[in-house]
Amino acid sequence: MSLRIKIFLFLTCLIVPAVAAAAGLNLENLPESDIQKAKDLIVKLEPLIREREAAQTLATLTFDELYAPLSDADQQFMKSFADIDAKAAGVKIPFRGIATGKEELTVIRGQQIKIKGEDKELPPQYLPPDVYAKYEEMMAAMEKDLGKRLYVESGYRSSAYQLYLFVYYLKNHAFSIRETVKFITLPGYSEHGSVEHQAIDFINAEGINGEDNPPEFAALEEYAWLKKHAYKFGFTESYPQMPAGSGITYEPWHWRFEKLLEN
Ligand SMILES: [Zn+2]
Q1: Pairing relation of β-strands 150-154 and 125-127?
Q2: How far is the CA of 129 from the centre of ligand 1 (A)?
Q3: Residue 133: closest CA among 105, 158, 98, 113
Q4: What is the CATH number of the domain that holds 114?
Q5: 232: domain range?
Q6: Which of 2, 164, 181, 203 has the smallest C-beta neighbourhood within 10 Å, fewest atoms?
Q7: 17 Cα–ligand 1 center, Å
Q8: What's the CA-to-centroid distance between 69 and ligand 1, angstroms?
Q9: What is the distance in A from the centroid of ligand 1 to the CA of 204?
Q10: What's the CA gap between 38 and 46, in Å, rounded?
Q11: Are the C-beta atoms of 43 and 183 separated by less than 8 Å?
């Protein structure tokens, strides 16, 4: 390789990251052009999302599958959300790793609950097999004590699906990345896609999940039971109530499995 080429390559290495950073997303408020592009992405992805929803396989969406319906330019724009500098955006939770959608998972089907008195079957949920086994063991113990159990409203979600959710929910937070990260985790930061720290969002038999009103879930005797016993099964509350301004949203329904807590 000639020296001139070597120097050129060396300079390219320096220039490319600088350009990429300059082209990065505005973390405070997306400019109007990016807002429109983000809205367009959601429209373009809608058929895929609906199809996977109907097939009940949205949770295991891979990046290749997510990007397939998009043009090169759209793919690049979508990827720029996956590449957000989490720390710069104000993310205070740890990186948990990328969930490919190809991990070994147990499918949970036929969970029956009631919502406002009406019977409802929850859509299938996915959990790593060891986490599912521990969840079942924990629920058997809860049923023995309380005569009731909690259901898995949301288990495993791939990082590609998480990326889609992040872009989808920007609209609820005035298209501010810094605001959105407080409510929707960036891909790689969600415990829902973490094989080592897999989270479960619980819902009770009456459909109480705390989503609109966290204290409603926290007032359940099922929650009090988790507080007392969940650690014995390796589960821990990820986002307990914190002082205002902590930057972490209170999620009493969200518990993660920690292999380290096992003997
Ligand atoms: Zn959760």
Answers
A1: unpaired
A2: 18
A3: 105
A4: 3.30.1380.10
A5: 25-263
A6: 2
A7: 33
A8: 28
A9: 15
A10: 13
A11: no
Q: What is the CA radius of gyration of the chain?
A: 21
Q: How far is the CA of 141 from the centre of ligand 1 (A)?
A: 22
- The label of the residue with tokens 């205070």 reads 92
Q: If you measure from the C-alpha of residue 121 to the centroid of ligand 1, how many angstroms do you get, rounded to a whole number?
A: 19
Is residue 4 situated within a structural domain?
no
Distance (angstroms) between ligand 1 centre and the Cα of 11 equals 44
Instruction: Look at the chain and report how many structural domains it folds into.
Output: 1
* pLDDT tier at 226, thresholds 50, 70, 90: very high
Q: Is 212 a domain residue?
A: yes
- 157-188 tens-digit pLDDT: 999 999 999 999 999 999 999 999 988 999 99
Question: Is the distance from CB of 119 to CB of 102 less than 8 angstroms?
Answer: no
Would residue 251 count as lying in a domain? yes
Please report whether residue 225 resides in a domain. yes
Let me know the angle formed at the C-alpha of 42 by 41 and 45, rounded to the nearest 5 degrees. Answer: 85
**pTM to 2 decimal places:** 0.81
